[in-house]
Structure formats: C-alpha cells, structure tokens
Design a protein that fits this description.
Blueprint (H helix, E strand, L loop, with lengths): L15 H25 L3 H54 L3 E6 L4 E4 L1 H7 L3 H4 L4 H5 L2 H17 L5 E7 L5 E12 L5 E10 L1 H46 L4 H29 L7 E4 H16 L3 E6 L6 E4 L1 H17 L5 E16 L5 E13 L6 H6 L17 H11 L3 E6 L5 E8 L21 E5 L3 H13 L3 E5 L2 H10 L6 E5 L7 H11 L4 E6 L3 H7 L7 E3 L4 H12 L4
Parallel strand pairs: 7-9, 13-14, 13-15, 15-16, 16-17
Antiparallel strand pairs: 1-2, 1-5, 3-4, 4-5, 6-8, 9-10, 10-12, 11-12
Helix pairs in contact: 1-2, 7-8, 8-12, 9-10, 10-12, 14-15
Length: 587
C-alpha cells in the first residue's frame, strides 16, 4: 500500500495571482491616467476634481474585481471542503463497515483513529484507547520493543514495511494473530504525520490449520501403525512359534539350531524395520564407512534376482572405474531393495530392470528442500520398463504414505524411507517417468576416498577377558541379557538399574571397575549425569554409552565427546568387540 500524501488541491490563502493582478492594474492606472490628464487638462482646479472622481472610480472598479475573484475563491474553497468532508465521511464509514481492524497512529504511536471492529474484537471502548499508546495497550511485552523499533525506524526513514504479522492482546488477556497492511501518512509539507494500518484477524484461520495438520498427522500415524503392526506381528509370530518349539527340541541339536537361526533372523528383521522407520524421519543413527558401490551391486545381484522374480530380467551396467562412497552399507542396501521392490510391482507382466553406475560432477545442484549438493558424485540408476507414473504422481512419489498401489498392498513408506536415507548421506534422489514408459530413479552420492587396505584395519585380540564391568541399564530384560552376554565371555559384571544405585555400588567397591557401560536415557539421573559423577570418583574410568533413542533425543541429553556410543539393538559380536577394544585401550 503506497504512502498517503495530501495533494494540496486547493489554496490555503488568497491566491497570489489576485494580489499581483491588483497591484499591476493599480500601478498602470495611476501612471497612465495621471500622464494623460496632465496632457489634456491645464486647469489645476479641474484637474483636482477629476483626480477625486478618478480615485473613487478606481476604488469602485477594483472593489468589483476583488469581490468577483474572492467570491469565486470562496465558492471553490467551499466545494473542496465539502468534497473533503464527504470523502472523510465515506472513508470512516468504510473503515467502520469493513470486517478488518482499521487504526491510525501519530508519530508517537498514539491512537488517533480506530474502527468498531477493533473495539468489538478486543473489548475496549473508544474513549479508553484514543490518544493512548498502541504499543502499551495492545502489544505484549515480549515483542513490544521489536515492533517499537520497526515503527520508529519507519517514521524516521519514511520506509515502513507494508506487511507484517504479530499478535495483539485483548482486554481479557487473550492473543489475536493479526496480519497487517501499513502505509505512512504525510502532512501538506510532505513530512510523515503518522501510520494507517488495516489488519486481518487470522486467529481462527490458524487454529483451523493447526486442527487440520493434527487430523492429517493422526491419519498418517494410523496408516503407519497399521503397516508396522502387520510387519511386527509377522515377526513376533516367527519368534514365538520358534521359541515354543525349542522347548520340545532341546535334545535335537540340529533342529534347535535351525529354530534359533529363525528367531535371530526375525529379530534382525525387526531391527531393520525400526531402522527403516527412523530413516523415514531421518533420525536413524548411521555408521558410514567407505566401500565400493560397484562391489555392493555385484554382491546384491543374486538376492535382487530373487526379489524381482523370474519374469523380470535383471541387467547390470557398472562403471569401469571404482566408485568409493562414504555411507552406511546396510542403509544403501535398503534403498536399493525398496526401489527394486517398487520396480517389480510396476511390471506385473514382466519386463527388465537395469542397474547402472557412473560418476558425474555437479557444480551446484539446488534441491527441492532448499539444500544443495556439489562436487564429484557416484550415480546409481535403476530403470524399469514398467507402467510408469503420471507427472502428478511423480511430484508426490517421495511423500510419506503416498502410494499408487491398491489398498492393502503398500503403506507408501518405501520411497520416503529411501529419500530420507539418501538425504541423510548428503545425497540426492530424483525420478523420471512417463505413463507406459517405465521409471528411472537416479541416486547421487558424494564420492569418498579409496577403501583402506585390510592390513591397515585395527586388530582385536578376541572378545574375552576377566575385567570388572559396571553395567547400568533401567530395562530389566535388557540388563539381564547384556549381563549374561558379558559373563559368557568371562567378564565380572556388576549390574544396576539406576544412577543413584550405580554410584553406591561404585563407592562400595572403591571405584575398582575397568569399564562402565551406561544407558543414556534413564529416570531421575541420566547417563551423562552418572558419567560426570563416576569420573569424579575415578578419572581413569573407561565409559561406553548405549541407547535405543534417536539422535534428536540424544542431542538434547548430550553424550561426552570422548566417550564411544553403541546403538541398540546390540549386535553381540560388534558390541563385544567394542568392549574389548575399550579395555585394551584401543578405542
């Protein structure tokens, strides 16, 4: 909205041209009439009488002329004033009838005008607020100073933001969210005289938006819960069935080992499901290591053939040069499997799936979420000859819970999980497709250094030992499982389910522990607080943290930088290797 200025359409005093015309006419009359009379009349007495008549005649003529000019000026001034009064009446009537806040402030921020809508919305009367400070009455203290600075800067510079948004306080103390359109007011001399603002009450609108988002979130959670429940019920069915069968097969060692493998595989499926859900929210903990992308595809080849079935031909076209990326191998495998599974579903009558790799250099590729990638990247392309997708489907393909499959045949999480994994690896995933022409997924991952030689890897001299370990875990089942695992390797384990109890045990044994394994999140005293207490008692104590929580929770809790961390679920072999390395002073 542009600044409002007084255009000065009418004069504020007698026009200067009237004065000039009068003075010029009078001077010419006196000069030429006297000269002409002196030339024509020689009698001095006659000359004096004529001069008197001439003077009165001049007065009468100029009076008529002045009366005519002034009458025209006054008439014009009355018309302009009436027009201004009508314009102001219409303006005030408009401001009163509009369902928006209308308010005018002077240069000190005091209210010079407000409409009934503001009064009805806030509960104040016009007499209570006119002439009072807008900022003292309507603006909350926590934002008052910021808005005052914006107002004063706008008054001083003549450049007030045309649009802004802030809350105002009603007489009852409630907040109303207002979106403003502002304009500066100027006086006849072009000096800023105040501010006029129109405000739209967005409180109900924003509340409805919030309710809609909540409704959508609950619907999404319901969809997610249904898919997760299905997968977890299948996993639990295997675990419970195999465990029950183990009771009667303990004498059959071979059969018992088979059942144990099935239980272990189901547990690993559950762990991968949890990891995939975290990938969907981009909160999973990744363990990036350098590896060859080509080698990964080669090793997955036979497994992928089983996924796509016999009626789909799997073709690989790998680059000649080595493509080393720094990533979590298991997560990248998950991405490939998710996309391959979608490709299989898109080719119900068979077809071909081509997996190719290459490299490319990106100067600065801007992404949809505002991020950017640059530098050398490995490119993994998966192209199928399936039914393809329309453009509107491609725009939503990475959205959570969006699926083109029939009800009950997909949760819409696969590609959103893939997107989350790739973005967490500082990569980029895109899709090109057309109906009936198949789909092509392009995955860009930053290239890394070469894979370290096997001889450079640190060695671990077994996982057994006789050291004393303090194990602190608030979950009893996890505590018992970890205690049994450590004792099986020969360690002496002292357990505790709380931080306070752990400190007492530590005092009781004089701090003679070789290692403390501490859960990060515990009631009353968290892992970091326990760590700080134990380190004061034994500065040389080695500490290992564990947790099943996501990164956002752990960031709020905090883990000391010099302490290693192992994510749950704990893989026994890897967990025991870390414990041994810590005790040997190699971690």
């Amino acid at each position: 909205m542009p600044p409002v200025r007084d255009e000065n359409h009418y004069p504020r005093m007698i026009p200067g041209k009237i004065v000039v015309i009068y003075a010029l006419a009078g001077g010419l009359w006196i000069l030429f009439s006297d000269t002409l009379l002196e030339f024509m009349v020689k009698d001095s007495q006659l000359m004096a009488r004529i001069a008197i008549v001439k003077g009165w005649g001049f007065i009468l003529v100029t009076a008529v002329i002045l009366f005519t000019f002034i009458q025209r000026y006054v008439t014009r001034l009355n018309v302009v004033n009436e027009t201004l009064r009508e314009s102001e009446r219409r303006f005030r009537e408009l401001m009163e009838r509009v369902h928006m806040i209308a308010v005018m402030l002077d240069t000190n921020g005091e209210i010079t005008f407000c409409n009934d809508f503001l009064l009805e919305l806030t509960g104040w009367t016009r007499e209570e607020i006119l002439g009072k400070s807008w900022f003292e009455i309507f603006i909350a203290p926590d934002i008052r100073e910021r808005l005052l600075v914006m107002f004063r800067d706008g008054i001083n510079s003549g450049d007030l933001p045309y649009h802004n948004e802030n809350t105002i306080i009603t007489r009852a103390g409630t907040d109303c969210l207002i979106v403003w359109d502002n304009t500066l007011l100027f006086d006849v001399n072009g000096v800023v005289a105040g501010v006029a603002s129109l405000g739209l009450d967005m409180t109900k609108h924003r509340n409805l938006e919030s309710q809609l988002r909540h409704s959508q979130k609950m619907e999404s959670i319901g969809t997610l819960a249904g898919g997760v429940a299905h997968d977890f019920n299948n996993i639990l069915t295997v675990i419970m069935t195999c465990t029950e069968m183990l009771r009667s097969k303990l004498g059959d060692r071979e059969r018992a080992l088979t059942l144990i493998d099935q239980v272990l595989n189901s547990a690993q499926r559950a762990a991968k499901l949890t990891s995939s859900l975290l990938a969907f929210s981009r909160k999973q903990q990744i363990a990036p290591r350098p590896f060859s992308l080509n080698e990964l595809i080669i090793q997955m080849h036979s497994f992928l053939e089983r996924i796509i079935g016999e009626d789909v031909e799997l073709i690989t076209d790998l680059s000649e040069g080595e493509l080393i990326i720094m990533a979590d191998r298991g997560q990248i495998e998950q991405v490939v499997m998710n996309i391959v599974s979608n490709a299989r579903d898109a080719m119900p009558k068979g077809g071909s799936l081509t997996i190719s790799t290459g490299r490319t250099y990106l100067d600065r590729q801007l992404l949809d979420d505002g991020g950017a990638v640059a530098g050398w990247h490995a490119v993994l392309t998966l192209a199928d000859t399936g039914i393809g997708m329309a453009s509107q489907e491609q725009e939503r393909i990475f959205e959570p819970f969006f699926t083109t499959k029939d009800v009950g045949k997909g949760t819409g999480l696969g590609l959103s999980m893939a997107y989350g994994i790739i973005r967490q690896h500082n990569g980029w995933i895109a899709v090109k497709s057309e109906v009936g022409g198949g789909s092509r997924f392009m995955i860009y991952l930053p290239l890394a250094e070469k894979v370290p030689d096997a001889g450079t890897q640190p060695s671990v001299n077994g996982s057994h030992g006789g050291e004393t370990i303090l194990l602190v875990e608030d979950d009893e089942q996890v505590l018992l499982a970890n205690e049994a695992m450590l004792e099986e390797c020969g360690y002496h384990v002292v357990t505790s389910r709380s931080g306070a109890d752990a400190i007492e045990l530590f005092h009781g044994q004089g701090g003679n522990f070789d290692l403390a394994i501490i859960d990060v999140i515990m009631p009353h005293m968290n892992g970091k607080q326990l760590y700080e207490a134990l380190i004061k008692l034994n500065p040389r104590l080695r500490v290992l943290f564990t947790s099943g929580y996501t990164f956002d929770v752990l960031d709020r809790t905090g883990i000391p930088e010099n302490c290693p961390f192992v994510s749950k679920p704990l893989v026994p072999e890897e967990f025991l290797r870390v414990v041994r390395k810590l005790l040997d002073g190699k971690a």
